[in-house]
Every structure is written in structure tokens, then in C-alpha cells.
Design a protein that fits this description.
Elements lengths: L6 E2 L2 E6 L2 E4 L5 H6 L10 E5 L5 H12 L1 H4 L7 H4 L20 E4 L16 E6 L2 H18 L9 H10 L8 H10 L5 E6 H6 L1 H12 L5 H10 L2 H5 L32 H16 L11
Parallel strand pairs: 4-5, 4-6, 6-7
Antiparallel strand pairs: 1-2, 2-3
The structure holds 3'-phosphate-adenosine-5'-phosphate sulfate.
The site of 3'-phosphate-adenosine-5'-phosphate sulfate has 20 residues, from helix 2, helix 5 and helix 11.
């Protein structure tokens, strides 16, 4: 089990304080230093379990805050506008960055900067139903391995699901631990919970909700632009939004299918039943009603 968890595509994973991180992009010392990260009251963080709509929400935040992004006159990739707190891929000097700073993160709640808990900085936490989350992650893993020409240890969906449910090949930790951790500690943060599914079903409504949370009111034309540019097809074709050239590789498959219920196309009945057996009880303890298909 230990051996199997140690890669995502060409990256080794290392375990630190109960979570896995990508080796070569971050150190245990840096993760520890984030505890004292100088959070500003005006900071905004998008926090997710991977494959829950992170890039989508990053993009929406960037569109809300940056007029030249909305108007298509700016040329800064989303990942630079809303950089990763724990993975500073683009070497942004966070201290020098003007307010309001926007960040993305996959950190579990207990590794979040303690100054985030003064309840002034804003946190947007996005969840996704775990079957689609797992399937999105499965395809992503395959595409990454193909991209980096890694032939070995490519699990089929059954093996991948076992890992997802039990802790093998799970980055950064078990889905249920991440989601239940952030919900259980919600009183400590100024936090807005959103779901991928409500974004699919009512994108404009969710963007308005985000604007209300951020105290950022957009006029009708700006709102129109944000909604239009955050649509799946538009984002998929937008090199600034689709991670096309991050790490010198063509990662445009971050935008794969963008729907609810794709798990039905790949999971067998038996796998679905097994998934339910393992997670159903735990899901009951979450204050979320998941949407499992597009209808
Ligand atoms: S990551 O690697 O954690 O940053 O991935 P993340 O961005 O969280 O999740 C990727 C999935 O989000 C889908 N996506 C979208 N869906 C609908 N509309 C828009 N605009 C959009 N942008 C990204 C993306 O397609 C991945 O889901 P799947 O199911 O694989 O298509």
C-alpha cells in the first residue's frame, strides 16, 4: 500500500502531517511555514479536494476581480492570478502582491494558516459528488500518465476506486476526510460552501452568490461576461484558463467533460454498490445533499 501511493504521473508523493504532497514542488518545511502565513483580511482562498471544480472557481474569481480579464484585454493565465498557496509553481512573491490577493489550495483544514481563522479572510470551499470526483480523478491520472509516457502501474477503474475509498493513490488525503474536516471546522472560518453541481445547474446564481460573499457587485454587462467566459466550452478553448502550458506540458485536459453523472458511464453496478457501501454512512453525517446526475 505504501509503495502504490507514491506517484502522480511523474511526481513522487511524500507524506507530511497526514497529507500527501508533490515532491520537488514543495517541502515539508514550506508546508509547516504556512501555519504562520501572513494572511491579510482582504485575502480570498478557493479551497477544494482535487477534481471538484478548482480551476473553474479560480477562473471565476479572476474574472470577478480583474476587469481586463473580463474584457479579454489581459494576458495573464488564471494560475498566476489565483496562484496555489502550497504549490508556488509560478514563483509569485506573495508578500509583494497587492491586495486583494487570490489563492487556491487543496490543503486539509488542519494545515490552513492560523491567521485564516480570524474570520476576516474569505474562504470558498467547493465540493463535488464523490463518484464524479473519483471518475474525474481517474481520467486525469490516466491522461497524466499518457502525457508523461509512464507505462507502469496504470490501474483500471476498479483498482483506482479501491484506492480512492481506502487510501491508496490518494492525493492529498481521503476525500471524506477533506470534506468532513472543512465542514466540521466551518465555524472557525469565514467560509462559503459551494458545490460543483450547483455551478453546473445555475452558474449565474452561483456567481452572484460568490459576488455577495465577496461584497463585489458587478453591473449587468460585467456579470454577462463572467458567466459567458466561465462556460465550459469557452474555458476549454481559452489557453489562459485551461492550464494549457503549465509545467511546459499540454495540460488542457484539465477541462475534460464538465458534467454531472459521468460516473455512470464507467462504474459497473457492482462497483457502484461497493462505493455506496463504503461511503453511504459517512455521507449521512455531512450537511450536504449530493446531486448524482444531471437530471
Ligand atoms: S484540479 O486538478 O484539482 O485543479 O481539478 P479541478 O479543477 O478541481 O477539477 C477538474 C474538473 O472540473 C471540470 N471543469 C468544469 N466543469 C464545468 N464547467 C467548467 N467551466 C469547468 N472547468 C473545469 C473539469 O472538466 C474536470 O471535471 P471532469 O469531470 O474531469 O470533466
Amino acid at each position: 500500500m505504501e509503495e502504490a501511493v507514491h506517484h502522480i504521473a511523474n511526481r513522487k508523493l511524500f507524506l507530511h502531517r497526514g497529507a500527501y504532497f508533490l515532491e520537488g514542488t514543495v517541502t515539508p518545511e514550506y508546508i509547516d511555514s504556512l501555519e504562520d502565513f501572513q494572511v491579510r483580511d482582504s485575502d480570498v482562498f478557493v479551497i477544494t479536494y482535487p477534481k471538484s471544480g478548482t480551476v473553474w472557481t479560480q477562473h471565476i474569481l479572476s474574472l470577478i476581480y480583474h476587469e481586463e480579464h473580463r474584457n479579454n484585454t489581459g494576458h495573464i493565465p488564471t494560475v498566476d492570478r489565483v496562484p496555489w498557496l502550497e504549490y508556488n509553481w509560478t514563483n509569485v512573491d506573495y508578500e509583494q502582491r497587492p491586495s486583494p490577493r487570490l489563492f487556491s489550495s487543496h490543503l486539509p483544514h488542519y494545515l490552513a494558516p492560523k491567521r485564516m481563522k480570524n474570520k476576516k479572510a474569505k474562504v470558498i470551499y467547493v465540493t463535488r459528488n464523490p463518484k464524479d470526483n473519483m471518475v474525474s480523478s481517474y481520467h486525469f491520472t490516466h491522461m497524466m500518465k499518457k502525457l508523461y509516457e509512464i507505462q507502469d502501474n496504470i490501474p483500471d477503474i476498479g483498482a483506482f476506486m479501491e484506492g480512492y475509498l481506502t487510501g491508496i493513490e490518494v492525493f492529498p488525503c481521503l476525500w471524506i476526510d477533506h470534506v468532513s474536516g472543512w465542514y466540521a471546522h466551518k465555524e472557525e472560518f469565514n467560509i462559503l460552501f459551494l458545490s460543483y453541481e450547483e455551478m453546473i445547474k445555475d452558474l449565474r446564481g452561483v456567481i452572484q452568490k460568490i459576488c455577495n460573499f465577496l461584497d463585489k457587485q458587478l453591473d449587468d454587462q460585467s456579470m454577462e461576461r463572467v458567466v459567458g467566459r466561465a462556460a465550459f466550452r469557452t474555458m476549454k478553448a481559452d489557453p489562459l484558463a485551461n492550464y494549457q502550458s503549465v509545467g511546459g506540458k499540454e495540460l488542457h485536459f484539465f477541462m475534460r467533460k464538465g458534467t454531472i453523472g459521468d460516473w455512470k458511464n464507467i462504474m459497473t453496478v457492482a462497483q457502484n454498490e461497493r462505493f455506496d457501501r463504503v461511503l453511504q454512512e459517512k455521507l449521512k453525517d455531512l450537511p450536504i445533499k449530493f446531486i448524482w446526475d444531471i437530471n
